[in-house]
């Protein structure tokens, strides 16, 4: 999102010349820029590999008085044939050129043909173009840790050149073994990409593996440096249901944050966010900007997390450690909810007065590369704040304390089957929250939910989330605490999450508003967190009740079906 206040207009600078014709052996390249309202934030540069020579550059451009699209004069320059171009487009505010304040974009064209484009990014976007023929391996679509069994090898090749490529061959080899080859007959236009999928799957076995992907069969390929790709993969012994972690940087003094939260908070509520057994948890870090910058929930733990992610503009949501756009947050959440997790993360807590003690037990089911940290965030479920300078006067999921601090807890190497435990405590002060402290807004400890997650310190990827609600009462219904039904409302497909301390027979019944049973099922359910899919698409729109029973425990949730 953008500044609430701006410093003035910026001068637009460009380097390049409009060429009617380039000399023999050179080709004309044109950069076309369309800024959003905040053109002052946009700069670009087209160079050779390593940053030299500089063929063309432009920006910053002029800030406009209203949201919209503002085309800038195209910049053209001549480039020697066979050159590799590196395109870099930067946004100083960190929210790209699109789309909240206009559908800004950038486009590189060669000979009148668009070969590279973009605009939706955060702080910077890069791309490469070869003046001539080039087809390269762009990506291998595999996670660092996957499930065992039949695995389809998929990925993307990209035409980074200025000529179409018709037909190519790909081969993959696992652990240096016999390559599996396949010929593809697709034609890939300049600037286009092609998603490939091998017809022969890999039978993935538990343990670490390396996959080598090789592209060939492209006569006249000018840049063979992108024809190979290697990826290390670990195959897990088992998987568990994922708990998605949604983090947001926000403030009570940020009008765009208020607008975003007016949409986000009801959506999170529909997913039973921060409820035991839910497939999603949320942590919101309140910032001390923009002006007047007096959000009382701002503290150093939130600032430490902001610095880790490099956040420069708010609202800024992250899903499982990935920076996403405000308009794409819901899609990102649903996408991540479909992914398996390969770490079991069990979180519990005890209360003694105002002292919260959190116990965490984590068990990886694969060897995970890199360094990881455990984060324990105590969030306040809800508090009113009428003194907010925006339209938002109710706040949810606000972080009050990260135990022991915002830097998290460094874990030992994550190895398959090796359990790690951690215990942290913090004594809260109830009342008088203010900048710099972790005091609670509510009148008791019952308004706290503990959110935990494991994060790769280098990539930012969050492997798994966890949750533990704080309660000072006794005799809790284990089944009720561990049941979550989402999304709600639903268009027919409903996820049912249950969490049991020990395996049990669990029965499920769905009642309509008249009390009639319209669905019934019984399953033998193992201990731990389990997720089931319930298809209600054949039922009419309306209110339903999902009742779950195990032994003498029963829990019921309302579901609204909208079709």
Helix content estimate: under 10%
Number of strands: 39
Number of helices: 4
CATH homology superfamily name of the largest domain: Immunoglobulins
The low-confidence parts are 1-19
**Termini Cα gap:** 33 Å
What is the global morphology?
globular
Task: Describe the overall structure.
The protein is mostly beta strands and 563 residues long. It folds into four domains: 14-130, no CATH class; 135-235, Immunoglobulins (Immunoglobulin-like), CATH 2.60.40; 244-469, Sandwich (Immunoglobulin-like); 485-561, Immunoglobulin-like (Sandwich), CATH 2.60.40. The chain is 7% helix and 47% strand. The chain has a five-stranded antiparallel beta sheet, with no helix packed on it. Strands 2, 5, 6, 8 and 9 form a five-stranded antiparallel beta sheet that branches. The chain has a five-stranded mixed beta sheet with strand order 12-20-19-15-16, with no helix packed on it.
């Amino acid at each position: 999102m953008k500044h609430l206040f701006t410093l003035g207009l910026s001068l637009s600078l460009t380097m390049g010349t409009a060429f009617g014709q380039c000399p023999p052996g050179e080709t004309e390249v044109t950069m076309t820029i369309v800024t959003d309202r905040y053109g002052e934030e946009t700069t670009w540069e087209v160079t050779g590999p390593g940053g030299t020579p500089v063929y063309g550059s432009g920006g910053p451009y002029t800030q406009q008085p209203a949201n919209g699209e503002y085309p800038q004069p195209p910049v053209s320059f001549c480039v020697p044939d066979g050159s590799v171009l590196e395109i870099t487009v930067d946004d100083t505010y960190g929210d790209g050129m699109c789309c909240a304040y206009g559908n800004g974009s950038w486009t590189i064209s060669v000979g009148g043909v668009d070969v590279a484009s973009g605009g939706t990014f955060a702080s910077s976007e890069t791309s490469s173009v070869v003046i001539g023929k080039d087809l390269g391996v762009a990506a291998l679509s595999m996670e660092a840790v996957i499930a065992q069994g039949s695995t389809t090898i998929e990925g993307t090749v990209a035409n980074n050149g200025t000529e179409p490529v018709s037909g190519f061959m790909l081969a993959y080899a696992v652990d240096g073994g016999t390559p599996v080859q396949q010929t593809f007959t697709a034609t890939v236009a300049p600037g286009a990409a092609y998603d490939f999928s091998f017809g022969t799957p890999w039978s993935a076995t538990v343990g670490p593996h390396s996959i080598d992907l090789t592209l060939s069969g492209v006569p006249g390929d000018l840049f063979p440096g992108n024809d190979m790709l290697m990826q290390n993969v670990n195959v897990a012994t088992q998987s568990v249901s994922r708990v998605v972690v949604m983090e947001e940087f926000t403030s009570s003094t940020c009008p765009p944050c208020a607008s975003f939260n007016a949409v986000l908070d009801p959506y999170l509520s529909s997913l039973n966010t921060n409820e035991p057994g839910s497939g999603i948890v949320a942590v919101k870090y309140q910032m001390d900007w923009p002006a007047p910058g007096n959000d009382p929930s701002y503290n150093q733990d939130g600032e430490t997390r902001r610095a880790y992610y490099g956040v420069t503009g708010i609202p800024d949501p992250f899903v499982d450690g990935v920076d996403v756009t405000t308009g794409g947050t819901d899609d990102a959440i649903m996408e991540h909810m479909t992914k398996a997790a390969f770490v079991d993360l069990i979180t519990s807590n005890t209360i003694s007065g105002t002292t919260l003690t959190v116990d965490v037990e984590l068990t990886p089911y694969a060897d995970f590369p890199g360094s990881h940290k455990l984060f324990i965030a105590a969030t306040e479920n809800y508090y009113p704040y009428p003194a907010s300078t925006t339209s938002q006067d109710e706040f949810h999921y606000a972080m009050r304390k990260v135990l022991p601090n915002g830097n998290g807890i460094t874990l030992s190497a994550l190895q398959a089957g090796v359990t790690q435990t951690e215990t942290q405590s913090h004594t809260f002060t109830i009342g008088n929250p203010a900048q710099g402290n972790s005091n609670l807004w509510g009148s008791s400890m019952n308004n706290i939910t503990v959110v935990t997650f494991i994060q790769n310190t280098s990539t930012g990827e969050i492997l798994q989330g966890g949750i533990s609600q704080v309660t000072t009462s006794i005799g809790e219904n284990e089944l009720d605490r561990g049941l979550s039904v989402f999304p709600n409302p639903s268009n027919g497909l409903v996820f049912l999450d249950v969490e049991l301390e020990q395996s049990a027979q669990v029965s499920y019944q769905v009642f309509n508003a008249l009390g009639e049973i319209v669905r019934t099922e019984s399953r033998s359910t193992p201990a731990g967190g389990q997720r089931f899919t319930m298809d209600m698409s054949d039922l009419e729109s309306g209110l339903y009740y999902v009742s779950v029973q195990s032994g003498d425990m029963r829990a019921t949730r309302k579901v609204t079906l909208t079709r």
